Amino acid sequence: MEPVKNIHNIQQLKIIGDARRLAILKLLMSGQETLSSLGKHLGEHPARVRHHLKQLEEAGLVEPTTTRIVRGFVEKYYTATAQAFMFTGLILPSQASPEDRAIIAIGSHDLALEFLGRQFNQLFHGNRSIYSIPVGSLEGLVALRQGLAHVAGCHLLDSASGEYNLPYIRHFFPDRLVRLVTLAHRQQGLLLPAGNPCHLHGIEDLVRDNISLINRNKGSGTRLWLDRQLETLGINPELIAGYEQEAHTHTQVAAAISQGKANAGIGLQASARQFELDFIPLFQERFDLAIPLEQIQNPGINSLLDYLSSGDFRQSVARMDGYNTMHSGEFISP
Fold first, then answer.
1. Which of 180, 92, 191 is nearest to 140 (CA)?
2. Which of 48, 138, 146, 210 meets the CB 3.0–4.6 Å disulfide criterion with 219?
């Protein structure tokens, strides 16, 4: 994946110049929404929202993520794209003080991080908010280095040391102090259609003729893990059908398998449960938040760390399949 770049697009600026589209984009920066839920938030009929949503999608500011059947109808979910977050200085509400400043989190996708954002935004009623975008662990660190984010989520295993994230922090920030805070430990594995009809048992089965993979995007920690495993096993990725078919989130991987677009993928156990898929455990990992030292005293970041260490967060996330929150909120020693 190419590094995140600054976006200067006049057409996009015109698109968000409309107050209704701006309101839609703000909602989608907070989390996934459907036409129906956007209509309820805005007090508008979904048909009116659809026109503005389509313009935002064509401008590259929002994108569909997945679909679900709700009361017999197919609901399509949307979220803001990485490009949208390049406009944060324009589209976020004016901040009266540092205490009200929004927190921009860019990096790897995680269901516990999504939960953290929702709960944090509700607790502070919009006075302090987390806006997150999943672009992959490596892209998150690039964005943090470029000053485009306050926090980066990452789960990068250094095969030489066996350590998560710290070697990458030293590489990306040789001249700056960046702290790592554990979000949670989580379980990843093979996501398969219910009943495992193809009888897969491990990574080596991905080369079979009847298997079609839905892969994660380049630069994501999950993709890097898979590539290392394939190299260790001596498997040429070109032999795997669907290897180039990419999804940016664990939710998208699970949705693709649920919809029959692929019959194998690597993702979170919690995502498998979400879509009632079979799951074969492969590895456990530590997911951290990388925060520059100068941001630690940001009142918003302080509040975020307080909630991350709270019993409410730990107990809620621990109920998600495959999550362990015993060390949530703890700083990782350099």
1. 180
2. 138
